[in-house]
Amino acid sequence: MKALLKTVLAASALMIATPGITAEPTLLNASYDVAREFYKDFNAAFVEHYKKTTGKDIKIDQSHGGSSAQARAVADGLDADVVTMNTTTDIDFLAGKDVVADDWRTKFPHNAAPTTSTMLFLVREGNPKGIKDWDDLIKPGIQVVVVNPKTGGNGRMAYLAAWGNVLSKGGTPEQAREFVSQLYKNVPVLARGGRDATGIFLQRNIGDVLVTFESEVVSVEREFGKGKVEAIHPSASIVAENPVAIVERTVAKKGSQEQARAYLDFLYSEQGQEIAAKHGIRPRLESVLKQYEATFKPLKLFTVEEYFGSLGEAQKVHFNDGGLFDQLYTVGK
Questions:
Q1: CATH code where residue 249 lies
Q2: Does any domain span residue 12?
Q3: Structural domain of residue 196, as residue ranges?
Q4: Hey, which end of the chain has fewer CB within 10 Å, N or C?
């Protein structure tokens, strides 16, 4: 018994003493679902860069999920130092909770969005259903896999891309609503996030087409091998910005403001931009974008602002409880 007590006391003493040891700082990045592989490579590069420029070590931890679910987790107390999302509304939500700065867009270039993406179609090898554009997604018998727009930015961007596609061709809002309603009638199950959607499509073998971020092409090839899917570029799609912000609540508590700032700044560096491009995420630097012209094929792109005012307005009209998505999806089912 005395031996056990000594062991417990020794362990307790070690636990008490440990905080006194100078440990390498650790940052937590709360991010969206399909950015896992990108940040795995980016974090390794940043750790090396930080050591080289400061002489200090640093550790980066990641948390991934549907972007809105991640935002709620941070709001509820997840001590992320930074958030790297795929829709501005998720960071605006955190600003409304006094978790990030109200003026977070002004803290970094390009409205604090170092990269962008767009929505493409992934179809099975050989494209057996002959899917080429948005109109093919509402044909009878076609099953479409998408993320629930209530839980992930991937899903919101897919929805807005489908809606905006109609408007980009001169269609009316009524025609856009009817088109999107028809599309969701062809959705067998709503995924929780982008990676869940990919799993439904490739592991559970559900659906004929997956509507997802352009970057998921690279992730699928890495995880499942080349040739499992083909990327279809529709005639028009949406610009999806990937915004970032420092979690002021956390960095104030941890004293990690400097490290968090350096981490997000590195996303704008040439090295950070090139890592993004290698993962199919569109860089802001034109010099890097030109190097990857084969990856980022030209297509007609429209912005959220063109057809929806802002993502905040789109959230209120389409995705808040009782909004247009709830109405058309309920009717569709």
A1: 3.40.190.10
A2: no
A3: 119-238+303-332
A4: N
Q: What is the distance of C-alpha 21 from the center of its chain?
A: 36
Number of domains the chain is built from: 2
Tell me the C-alpha distance between 51 and 53, whole Å: 6
Q: pTM for this one?
A: 0.79
Residues 123 and 100 in one domain: no
Shared domain for 256 and 228, answered yes or no, is: no
Tokens 């610009």: give the residue: 239
